[in-house]
Amino acid sequence: MPQEKLTDGYVDALTASGREVMVWDTALPRFGVRVTPAGSKVYLVQYRAKGAPGEGSKTRRIPIGKHDGDLWNVTKARAAARRLLAPVDLGHDPFAEAEAKRQAEAAAKAAAAEAEARAKREAEARELETYRAVTARYIDLAGKKNRTWTETERLLRFGDTTGKPAKRRSGHKTKPSTVAGPMKAWGERHIPEIRRSDVADLLDAIKKRSPAVARATYAALRGLFSWCLERDLIARSPCDGLTAPPRPTARDRVLGDDELRLIWLASDQLGYPFGPVVQLLMLTGQRRAEVAGMSWSELDREAGIWQIPANRSKNGKAHEVDLSPQAVAVLEAIPKSKGLVFPARNEGAVRGFSATKRRLDEIMQKIADKEAKGEAVVLRPWRLHDLRRSAATGMAALSFPPHVAERVLNHVSGTQSGLVGVYQRHEYRPERKAALTAWGVHVDAVVKAITPPSNVVQLRA
């Protein structure tokens, strides 16, 4: 290979010859310039490094830079070559050391990427096993097979504050729920971390508000954790060994005629949609969800029949309700449209009964105070479900037997169990129609009565 004292002029004069040419510098051994077949001129150093035991020495080439007369020229390249060759003279191998450094950096980068990917996988897996995520899967895969899955979903997701605040009819946003609930307490908790004590504390908090909701929540949680146990998401259900909250004492509140009259008059002032809903609850004795979800396709107003499909009935049985003339009159006053009789503003059936009940109580109080003419009136607390019990009791008071009232309410009890429940298929349609007709007449008479209330506690001012 040719050797010359490299200068900028000499390197500039080098030309391509169709093959690679190496010219070594006589001023600095092991430093030279390589001319490629394409004409590029690259400065480099070349040295022999000691190989591993049992291996011969190895020739190393380390490129310095491309000759361009500005960034790299002979003077700069020769100085860089001296720096590269200094460790070689001390027995080092810069090429191997640089290669080892690159490999170490690549290994460290790969290890960091793997650790990051593993952490991401673990985070994703953990996120899939949070109470929120597992509940969503349970409701989607198992809960919706149950005809009451909407109630199960409401109980399991109670206290969820992640969604957008719902809007009231007035347009104001409601604040996220601050009441204790599974989702509020455990939303982001890893489901295997939920302990029996967590469930006990939650049920104790709910029990203070409503023993009935606490018992229903316990039942919903047992189903969820049993499902998790089957899928090996947990080793043991936190509901195991936990006593269910006691069954709440059955209510026996029956509304008197004076109370029915106040409720009817107040519902008139309440207006659509809640006013007619309350009046139909009173006249038909059906459940709140069934009345609120009523659709025009279920109604035959000429025949006076309301057909509740099985998928909307609490006991899963289709039910026909004979509408009294008073119930038909309530429906006739509602403008006919498509779909639901009482639609919500956005989607689904009308809701917001808690606020409506408070407003209804306020109107009832004003009417009672006005009729009392200065005397203080205290109204007894009541619930919308009391209308159903009052209808059944009222029909019994009108001499209709219990089994007829139960058929009217589509209620299954002891009178329809055993052999009777299996073999008795008579529907008592004439008796049911007569009972609801008589009850409608009774309610109409009560509403139009002028006699003052009798079972309302009155205190003189």
Question: What is the topology?
Answer:
Layout lengths: L2 E2 L3 H6 L7 E5 L5 E5 L5 E9 L8 E9 L7 H16 L4 H35 L2 H11 L7 H8 L25 H5 L9 H14 L1 H20 L26 H14 L3 H11 L3 H5 L6 E2 L4 E4 L10 E4 L2 H8 L20 H20 L3 E3 L7 H12 L4 H8 L8 H6 L5 H20 L8 E3 L2
Parallel strand pairs: 1-2
Antiparallel strand pairs: 2-3, 3-4, 4-5, 6-7, 7-8, 9-10
Describe this structure in words.
Helix 7 (196-209) packs antiparallel against helix 8 (211-230), helix 9 (257-270) crosses helix 13 (353-372) and helix 14 runs antiparallel to helix 15. This protein starts with a strand and ends with a strand. The protein has three domains: 3-92, Double Stranded RNA Binding Domain, CATH 3.30.160.390; 131-230, no CATH class; 257-459, hpI Integrase, Chain A. It is built from 17 helices and ten strands. With 461 residues, it is α+β, with helices and mostly antiparallel strands. It is rod-shaped. 48% of the residues lie in helices and 10% in strands. The protein has a five-stranded mixed beta sheet, with helices on one face. Strands 6-7-8 form a three-stranded antiparallel beta sheet. It has a two-stranded antiparallel ribbon with strand order 9-10.
